[in-house]
Amino acid sequence: MRTSVPLAHAYRLLNHGPTTLVTTAHGGRRNVMAAAWVMPLDFEPPKFAAVVAADTFTRELLDAAGECVLQVPTTEQLQLTYDCGSRSGRDGDKFTALGIGTSAASLVAAPLVDGCAAWLECRVLAEPDLATRHDLFVLECVAAWADDRWWHNGEWQFAPAGPRSLHHLKGGVFFATGERLAAARPRRSS
Amino acid sequence: MRTSVPLAHAYRLLNHGPTTLVTTAHGGRRNVMAAAWVMPLDFEPPKFAAVVAADTFTRELLDAAGECVLQVPTTEQLQLTYDCGSRSGRDGDKFTALGIGTSAASLVAAPLVDGCAAWLECRVLAEPDLATRHDLFVLECVAAWADDRWWHNGEWQFAPAGPRSLHHLKGGVFFATGERLAAARPRRSS
Question: Do B182 and A189 touch (CB under 8 A)?
Answer without folding.
Answer: no
